[in-house]
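INTERNAL AUDIT FORM
Audit reference: QA-55
Scope: verify that the stored structure record matches its stored sequence.
Auditor: D.O.
Record contents follow.
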Amino acid sequence: MYKTYFGLTKEPFNLTSDPGFLYLSNDHREALAGLVYMICARKGFVVLASEAGMGKTTLLGAVLRQFQGRIRSSLILNPTLTPNEFLEIALMDFGIRDIPASKALRLNLLHQMLLQTQHEGKTAVLLIDEAHRLSSEVLEEIRLLSNFEMADQKLLQIVLSGQKELAVTLDRPELWQLKQRVAFRMAIQPLGAADVEQYIQHRWKKAGGTLPTVFREDAIEQIAASSKGIPRVINVICDNALTAGFADGTRVITANHIVKACGELHLNGTVVRSLMSLADSPAEPSPVAVPTTAPAAPAYSGPVLRTLDRYDSANNRPSGWSRWFRKAAVNVATTGNV
């Protein structure tokens, strides 16, 4: 609706999980690097947990982009299935169409596919989103799938991604054997105020907008307070505010627009300013600082994963996982779009 009006080529705050719009905060960068490392090193199980709306699905899409043509993957987005249904949809997403009715034959088919993938020099990866919704029976089935292995490595890499309840689920006594097999656990925290501003700038630029954005400084402060740093909520607020700006015939989004948007979205309880206190706010936009370019990393002879170096950490040092990429003899393909 407002793309042309604001000079954009795409919707900057769409709710779809587009890896091309992924903003790498420190936590997102660490999680991306950790997932890539787990797949490269064939560690078996990894768990990614955070509250809803933090971009986990987008992150999984970014992981798949990192390995274009080098992995064979199955991505399950709706895991509310029976054990038999889960195995069937996993096989289908691995590209297997002629699926037998017998579970024994299905498992044998999966084993043969994993061996063939290994023979081709690729890695088989099973990614399960919304994993907190998995039943104990399906989780046990997944644990048994991890038994497909060779003497020195796992044949199937499994990523469990879900909300915080996933960590609680894995602590159940009956899932102790599965918990033992988890090689890594990672979490993503809500964005801080500085990251919220950079997140908005990043998506605005990706959508074809020029920097600085049309969001005034007080608007960004209001977004940070109202969204509590959750990317999905930021998107909803910004989209509504831009629609309101378009309707008002203005190309400057102020805190007033944000407060109104939050009211329509029933987010008033998180708003820290009132419309009355903002009534006399100046109409002209205040300058918005454009994020500076990250300082160049020191020269080294190891592999490069440029995606992870795009954003600096708070102390201007590469993240722990990024430093691993500098030392490991792993050549990871990058797309430059993440």
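Auditor finding: record pair retrieved intact. The chain has two domains: 26-187, 191-278.
Action required: none
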